[in-house]
């Protein structure tokens, strides 16, 4: 999607107050909802993704499973509200061995596990709104001993309020 786009500064893939925040996202809803609400804490529109469990309600980007994001910027930045419920997100990257690897962070896991194609890790959210920054280049190198090439897909899975999701060239 963004492979042939000049990438510098900051690239937003979800902006909750935009006119169509989920335009490039696929939405799966079963026993839950995805809706835009006004958050009482920040008095702004946010995207609420909520379901009965983490496998039934989620959003993925890009919407077309045959396409990839093609984003070369190595920092994933998200602004997420802790709703004190299970939350997980996943990002798929391509490394310099041409292998697709997934990183999954969740607030219900206590240990990090590295398998050939997926690395799962715990994530602690503070009360209220959290700015989460993931250095995908560093994670790829530390987990697999390979170099990050690009971000292919992103997935936000249930029970959160999200204000912003983007990728940057350096820490934001």
TrEMBL record:
InterPro entries: CFA20/CFAP20DC, CFA20_dom. It comes from the Eukaryota. This is Cilia and flagella associated protein 20. Residues 1-155 form the CFA20 domain. It comes from Erpetoichthys calabaricus (Rope fish). The lineage of its organism: Eukaryota, Metazoa, Chordata, Craniata, Vertebrata.
